[in-house]
Amino acid sequence: MKPETVVITGASAGLGRAAAREFARHGAKIGLLARGLDGLEAAKREVEDLGGTALVIPTDVANSAAVEQAADSIEEKLGPIDIWVNNAMASVFSPVKEMKPEEYKRVTEVTYLGVVYGTLAVLKRMLPRNRGCLLRGQACYRGIYRLITL
Is pTM beyond 0.70 here? Predict the structure, then answer.
């Protein structure tokens, strides 16, 4: 079997980075997407140390054009995307009454629209092939992803 090509948004920390390590243990080729270059580079080193291949693409998932470009780059460099993990999210640790409208906007853009943009980008590629797997990272319950399989 050839290694699977996996994309993980929010791959620089937390659940996304842990998922990258797990896919790496199985020899996956992984597109690592997030905004923070330092975290992405550290995740890349971990992936490679575990036997995977990593491609770092600094990406703001709240930007649909950037997500499309990342998907194009991954398919060009790593091959057709087999698995896409929508994991990126933003949050604000603040009492609700102290939050500003622009903070709510950013949380919505990253956590909701980031999933929409990632889903649209990958379905555009997976549906013509009639194969692939789409995962929603933050919808985890005790480590189990909500899963959509084509």
Answer: yes
